[in-house]
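Narrative summary of target 7.
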Amino acid sequence: MLETLCHRIDNINEWIGRTTSWLFLPFAILVVIDVVTRYALRHPWFYIDINVQIMGTLILLAGGYLLVNEGHIGVDVLVTHLSPRHRAILDIVLFPIFIGSIGALLWRTGIAAGDSWRILECGISGLDIPIYPLKTIVAIGFFLVLLQGTSKFIRNIMVIKS
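Modeled conformation, tokenized:
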């Protein structure tokens, strides 16, 4: 049953990561437009807030995907010589730090997102782009990382028990 739960969490983060990666195309196009208007036409582009939100979404929703695919930066020099069982033990020992930090980030970003929705917060550029959706995505991103980290924790317990 726990393995099924872990597999579902993996699938959710894998799907969100792959789907979100398509946002890189509009991001790249907008960067090109910004560069052309800024340097070739000598006219700054005021739609850069859109790019910030797209890139923020890409980065924040990729966290769980990276954790599924072990793409986060690690200190491999310390753990490469460890057996899978000893790596699992180390991950379990460090899990309270993970859960505490990601939990605190989720808690604070959830509050910030709620406050932002309450006042319908907008950016300061000429476009007045709403910020509350991005603040919500920040909280969702931390939630997905928390889910994936918990899945990894459960799998580490299974490695130790086997």
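The chain has six helices and no strands.
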